[in-house]
């Protein structure tokens, strides 16, 4: 039977009638005339099922002046409930405290049986995880005050209530209710519930598998009166086998979308009441929130998600008697900078936010992202980054000794030297801003206690449980792993990143921007990266006052560091440093795709060139840096020595013989117009690239600018309506159009036309036209076309000829075959 979470279960009624079958109990040694009878009616009673809850036991306790007067239960017969759910109490008028409990657990029974005063109720709790709770047997309870007054009929009473809880399970904030012959006590469940529904965003193409869903930071005990409990525990909702979620699958529809249902967990409420006061500060602190912790793989990559549970905005309470339905859509891989959509919810559902697991994160070292703390975990076009700590909703610069996993703080804003402040407790770690989940941070009493590799040996390529427990290893491999994953699950490698090694720093220096890259922010390389200037801690743990435009980054071998001065980048070097100093760590992806470059270059251009629109090179690449340049000498140089006729920028803006680019782009070559009828010319182009792996590629291309040729296009004037030559033939004017129409024609040259039938010359040649103006491109000649004596329509082909001054004969300048039909006579 479906459970209704918020529902009134027990009704307390003050009535004038006595029930003959009810057991009357005097609560004070007073004359009978001074007592009034209060009748209590329960809708749900022993052995009955109402709203999905089986009522197995009812207890009613009454207190006066904080002292227990009566402790009635159905189990020992002191509370007799008839078939109508009625029992009576005879009490003197006054104000009493009460406690009503349904379905108490065995642990609660032991505690409630020995209660002597009302304050004993405050500490009456039970271990909910070991109580075999279901939605049908959860304990229900309400407490408060009941004011009894004489009614209008002798011996009868009326009642007013001031309960602790309202029908929603929240704290009742009103005064006594209106006096009535019927007073109602709402009986909320003392527990909360959380239900999780997950789906994959429509835009996600990677496969998402969920292996574990856990609710954490939940109070270990549940109480009849809610209270702050710092002893927290966790509960698995789902622990495999792996479930693949999708955008279109799922068994739960919400807001028109399908979600995959995960098991519901019954959990203790999350209260911040302490010493009778609701601690608003703690209730709005996300560090105190209960949260869902989800282990998953995103496209085969292990990842985690953390969802803060809350009752409302900046309210991390979880109310009793409330089911929190979490509808979440996964859009990207987990960690900071990853954004997800949480569907809006109603009624007893909650709005939650994806929160990154606090710990080590890798931020972009691209110059475009400088000082922006862009997390690159799921940006697979980013192959390197700077290791930082994400904590308290902020990023923190982190410094490490050589081979150490203990991240120490770097206050980039400080302008004076700062000594190292060691942890004083697990909760107060001071300058230690992160450490592995299974490391004893309280053992660090000073800078010398921060573990590291003291000799010149290498940092192991893989973290081991023994080394991590000592606080040593490769911290990049622990990025995005939570303390729980490291300390409890033993995950020591995210399988995605590692510390940069000397070879990778050598590549970085080889790809440096070089001269002209001087700046105040960091070391420029690959024409897109900027390795930030950063402060360091000396061998005494003192944080220097300024980075002085320098940076120091550990490598994985022989305590070598990559050191540079951003104002003098050509002096960057890789050399040994004292391993006890605190330097920054740079991380590199384990798997960088091999260089992929496909280029579709332009190969030719006509005499007109491409000075304005350019000729595109279609470069499809995953390489971060490449360069194209005009070759001016050597084996691959072109035939043209007019270098200023070639540019990688529009010629009107100036000549550029070299261009740099990255990844996929479409650079263009701009070539000047060149009017030549005698020869072509060529330009040689060199393409070089440098990949993050250090792989270099070189290609050579040749662009040919062709000469122009004069062509003649004949057309016939005076054709019939059918666009044919008349069968009887006759004289026709043949118009010759010379091309190109934007170059001067050779003056003195002569033009004529002949025609053929079945490839054999027919009739006479046309008259001759002489070019007298080089800018004139149209000429007419007369041609006598013979009659068609055949019984069929025939096709005639016309050819244009030219003879220039210095030529001995005519040559065919027709650009193609031009044919016309001739009708029969």
In short:
The protein folds into five domains: 154 residues, Immunoglobulin-like (Sandwich), CATH 2.60.40; 167 residues, Immunoglobulin-like (Sandwich), CATH 2.60.40; 234 residues, no CATH class; 109 residues, Sandwich (Immunoglobulin-like); 112 residues, Immunoglobulins (Immunoglobulin-like), CATH 2.60.40.10. It is 4% helix and 37% strand.
Helix-strand blueprint:
Blueprint: E1 10-12, E2 36-42, E3 49-50, E4 53-54, E5 58-64, E6 67-73, E7 86-91, E8 94-102, H1 106-112, E9 125-127, E10 140-150, E11 157-163, E12 191-200, E13 208-219, E14 221-223, E15 232-238, E16 243-245, E17 252-254, E18 257-268, E19 273-274, E20 277-278, H2 280-283, E21 291-298, E22 301-308, E23 322-330, E24 341-342, E25 353-355, E26 359-364, E27 384-391, E28 394-399, E29 407-409, E30 432-434, H3 465-469, H4 483-487, E31 497-499, H5 502-510, E32 522-525, E33 529-532, E34 550-554, E35 560-565, E36 573-576, E37 584-589, E38 597-600, E39 604-605, E40 615-616, E41 618-621, E42 625-631, E43 646-647, E44 658-661, E45 668-671, E46 681-690, E47 696-705, E48 711-716, E49 730-739, E50 750-757, E51 760-762, E52 769-770, E53 778-785, E54 794-803, E55 811-812, E56 818-822
Q: How would you portray this structure in words?
A:
- This protein is mainly β and 825 residues long.
- The chain has five domains: 10-163, Immunoglobulin-like, CATH 2.60.40; 191-357, Sandwich (Immunoglobulin-like), CATH 2.60.40; 358-591, no CATH class; 597-705, Immunoglobulin-like, CATH 2.60.40.10; 711-822, Immunoglobulin-like.
- It is built from five helices and 56 strands.
- Strands 26, 27, 28, 29, 30, 31, 34, 35, 36 and 37 form a ten-stranded mixed β-sheet that branches. Strands 13, 15, 16, 21, 22 and 25 form a six-stranded antiparallel β-sheet that branches.
- It is elongated, with a radius of gyration of 45 Å.
- Residues 1-33, 43-51 and 335-356 have low confidence and may be disordered.
